[in-house]
Structure prediction request, 340 residues.
Amino acid sequence: MQFQLRQRGRSSIDFAASLSATAAKLRPHVDAAVAALELPEDLAARLDHVDTALRAHPARWFQVRLMNWASQHHGQITSDAFDEIADDLDSEFERLARGATQIETRPGFQPPSYWDGVAFHRTTGGWTREHQGFIHGELIHPLYVARNFPGGIFKQRRAVLGELGERDYLRILELGTSSGHFTVALAEHYPNAEITGVEPSVPMLEQAQRFANDRGWRWRLIQGIAEETGLPDESFDLVTSYILLHELPVAATRRVFTEAFRLLESGGTLFMSDVRPFRDMDALAQWRQADLARRTGEPYWCDAASLDLAALATEVGFEAASSYGVGSANYPWVTVAAKP
Ligand SMILES: C[S@@+](CC[C@H](N)C(=O)[O-])C[C@H]1O[C@@H](n2cnc3c(N)ncnc32)[C@H](O)[C@@H]1O
Prediction:
């Protein structure tokens, strides 16, 4: 999609991304200081212990302030950058709302109760803010997250599909479609597939719709939750998600796996990509991850990272379940299982 940010908005986003990059450069110094401490076994106690022990450590002092500032302000900065160009985008939004991909809204739909009082990713206005799909999909992801995220956030979404082998999936359900970045990867990888996306937020689906209509694709985009999609039994050969599960409480993830089992045909595949579990990390990496999660608006991350998703898949009836990290950083962490 073609658009041009105003100088103020562009440079403000650049500034926030640069602060994150500077915080990342301090990491080796902070890690060395943390590694020199005797770390408690319990993760919450470990976070407290490091906070106290490194309160006056210069690199840590700066790192915390840079991380907090970027995390607390990037949502408002990108939101303001959007507001500056909103009028320019009207005709493009109208054009891309037309096409084969349309959104099915659910009258009276309520977002999940575990969203109450939570600003995921500290995103200004939450997932349901008007135009959050554009703000997240065209500004936050490419201009803020991608600049500092190791491995390339778009490259990872495409590469992970290589884990599914040669099978040509034809009826794909993506849970947590958001602004459509993984959906694009699915459509490119499986050009013969009918693609359905379920997502609670209509503003997020609007951006997914723009990506699809811009390319002349027909996706079915449905407002709903992954735990209870309302879709017919055994109607898909692949049920998948990318970076959804760490945003759900454990009880919701259980329901999602049960729902995926119901929705898959016999021989269908469950394929979830998410965060690396704590059991694959040493004490320092666990601390680093939990520290990041608490600063960046991720209330369910630590519980999600404590789950064994292959065991959960087996529990709900899947077979041949496996979970492992992709690439040298073991990220994303994929869970693959088959419905008997
Ligand atoms: C981190 S984003 C997912 C990223 C997306 N799959 C991608 O590849 O860019 C999380 C998305 O999951 C959605 N979400 C949160 N809870 C959900 C649920 N219970 N069911 C379906 N989607 C959910 C949010 O609205 C948000 O758009």
Notes: The first strand starts at residue 102 and ends at 104. The chain has a mean pLDDT of 95.
